[in-house]
Amino acid sequence: FAQYLPQEMSLHSREEILDKIAVTLGGRAAEELFVGKISTGASDDLDKVTKMAYAMISVYGMNAELGLLSYRQGNDAQFYKPYSEATGRLMDREARQVVDQEYKRVKDLLLEKREVVEALSAALLKRETLVFNELTAIMGDRPHGVEEHYKQYLASGNPFTAPVPGAAEAEPDAAAAAPPAEGQTPVYAAMGSASDETVRKSGGAA
After folding, report:
1. Largest CA distance in the chain
2. 170: which DSSP letter?
3. Which 8-state DSSP code applies to residue 34?
4. Please, what sign has the CA dihedral across residues 140, 142, 144, 148?
5. 155 or 120, which is more confident
6. 200 by DSSP, 3-state: which?
7. Which residues in 52-71 are b (16+ Cβ under 10 Å) and which e?
């Protein structure tokens, strides 16, 4: 089963990218806060966070220190960089600052919503997958609502537990379900006998 959401816009604001960084860091933050140990599970998340932070600073012109300059690197990046060593160190410092700020932000949010996190954890121990309606029951409604073009995908509930259309009306036939009367050959036995007779007459050919 696959369900595809409408295509998302390719334009993103600075605030939206920062939100994405914070959300992506949520798994590592939860490990640190609630498990007390960190694992390699967040390696892919950290890779994405690093790329987003550097893109904000060196490509999208979203950093006050570097200004409206874009240092998008091509295939020749290993041989030539269009900026100085000092600018490279500035990029590193600003990228680290962005990630550190968003990591602190998401940790503060998780601590504030500790009860919700624990409720989600308990629900996931019972059911491996939670869908929108189940998440809403635990976390409450989204503060800014749901965009109209997403509602048709979210209002149907859990597609894996929804009843099959027409299944409720398909009641078993009382006559078919009843045991055969004494001396009466069951239907499936009669069908088997007829099939055996047909095979014998044809010499065993299928």
Report:
1. 98
2. -
3. I
4. negative
5. 120
6. helix
7. bbbbbbbebebbeebeeeeb
**For 85-99, b where at least 16 C-beta lie within 10 A, e where not — what string?**
eebeebbeebbeebb
Question: Residue 28 burial (CB < 10 Å; 0-12/13-18/19+)?
Answer: buried
Question: What's the whole-model pTM score?
Answer: 0.68
Q: Is residue 45 exposed (0-12), middle (13-18) or buried (19+ Cβ within 10 Å)?
A: middle
Sign of the C-alpha dihedral computed for residues 35, 29, 45 and 78 taken in this order: negative
Highest mean pLDDT: which of 61-75, 116-130, 131-145, 165-179? 116-130
CB 120 within 8 A of CB 126: no
Q: Once rounded to an integer, what is the mean pLDDT over residues 149-153?
A: 75
DSSP letter, residue 162: S
Give the mean pLDDT of the chain.
Answer: 79
Residue of 67, 56, 47 whose CA lies nearest to 18? 56
